[in-house]
Specification:
Elements (H helix, E strand, L loop, with lengths): L5 H9 L4 H10 L5 E5 L5 H10 L4 E5 L3 H12 L8 E4 L10 E4 L12 E4 L2
Length: 121
């Protein structure tokens, strides 16, 4: 976890990221559910979802950025049995099939959630 980055720093300091979203997700997701995490980033929500769905459910997570995807894989490998219900995909989802360029804006170093995709023609 990168504690100098927005998400990693918040998790490090508070042991939770976005308490409101985390609480709503925890209340809405049921054991055995199928949950999709699009733009999984470093996997905080993926792990939260997996803990809630249990081994009876499944979490399918998508993260297109290769460096962040590697962190997602590493973080999930530390999750123990929670990880058994998770399937990871190193790709983006969109309205149509195709390719896109992955852009890292100037703020990417401090907030890696700011990477964005631009369609290529």
């Amino acid at each position: 976890m990168n504690v100098d980055e927005t998400i990693g720093g918040e998790i490090f300091r508070q042991n939770i990221f976005d308490i409101a979203v985390s609480e709503v997700a925890w209340r809405l997701i049921k054991r055995g559910d199928l949950v999709v995490d699009v733009g999984a980033n470093i996997g905080y929500m993926t792990r939260l979802f997996a803990a809630k769905v249990g081994v009876q459910g499944q979490v399918v997570s998508f993260e297109p950025h290769p460096v962040i995807f590697a962190r997602l894989q590493r973080n999930l490998s530390l999750a123990g049995s929670v990880a058994s219900s998770v399937v990871l995909h190193n790709c983006a989802l969109g309205a149509r099939e195709g390719t896109a360029r992955l852009l890292e804006p100037a703020a990417f170093g401090s907030n890696q959630g700011t990477a964005t995709l631009v369609a290529t023609h």
